[in-house]
Amino acid sequence: MSRKFHTQRTEAIDNHVWVEFTQLAAEYEVVNLSHGFPDFPPPSFAKEALCTAVCGGTSMHQYTRILVIIIEPFHDRYKSMTVMAGGKPVYMPLKPAKVTCPTLSSADWVLCPEELASKFTSHTKAIIINSPSNPLGKVFQREELQMIADLCIKHNVICISDEVYEWLTYDGAQHIKIASFPGMWEHTVTIGSAGKCFSATGWKLGWAIGPGHILKHLQSIHQNSVYHCPTPTQEALAVCFQREYNMFGTEESYFRQLPKQLQTKCERLANCMSSVGLQPIMPEGGYFMMMDISNVKVDLNDPNTKDELYDSRFVKWLIKEKGLGTIPVSAFFSLEQRAHFQNYIRVCFVRDDSTLDAVEDILKQWSDYIKMGSN
Known about the structure:
By secondary structure, the protein is α/β, with parallel strands linked by helices. Helices cover about 40% and strands about 15% of the residues. The strands form 4 sheets. The chain has a 6-stranded mixed sheet, with helices on both faces.
């Protein structure tokens, strides 16, 4: 195998949006809504479970060329992971449908059935879906999932279903596991995350659920790369899940409390963002909300960014001029589609109230400035 092939498989790893905008946000000491981690602590029962696991016995501290369809917008790591595995990404964009309601929703972004069907060929081995999705917050409906399931079964394709935000749905949206559809258990790998479930993203602990004939290959890769997850966090996660199992369906359940808290934060952030002309696309689930920036009039004459897409220039302007950190949504699309979706930015609303207070102060000053300019 040539050196050039190895370089092509790994070059996407280091070149990504997180490096550039993380450094820029740190340089300007912004109020940061760009990254998907809570700036409030996990619930007390999760911290107690971890403390108990850490203080446990000795055993707790020892070792215990294919085509892949990616629905976009997507987390940029999907592409690099696909390439690293020797696959070739084939992109399928969600597109906003024409709507009359003044408040757009992530539900308005849909798949074209004919276009999706055309992406499946005899060389297609997998499709990656994310529901609720990052950055859009879309929760795929039963009819949409059935369409994907039918194509997977017809073409004998594996569905890699990223469901890390499965417990975070809003306004009555219902998360449905595609693995539960008839015939799909044998075709699905479902991905979950302790960090997203229990607001502890630093634990870096997740799981994959699926049939043995597929998971044995995941286990082989894991055993020969990462090898093992920290035992104390695994033990703490088990305790957290047992607690949720006992509380399931009650008002004390964290899986019921957290979505209510986050929906309130999302609505609060959407309202203050609207005050300066940003148009929120209300998410049905997840950590993030997209904002349409096309109606915001700002001076983006920075010569250092003149050759970049509009959303990237806008985000850098927000950081430098307003002290507010966000992420350009074009980074979540393929190179072929990015120019069509450069009028959106992504914000994370999973923030402490004090952070949202700071955001409101920034946007109020901005709104007052706009009003003064219009008088």
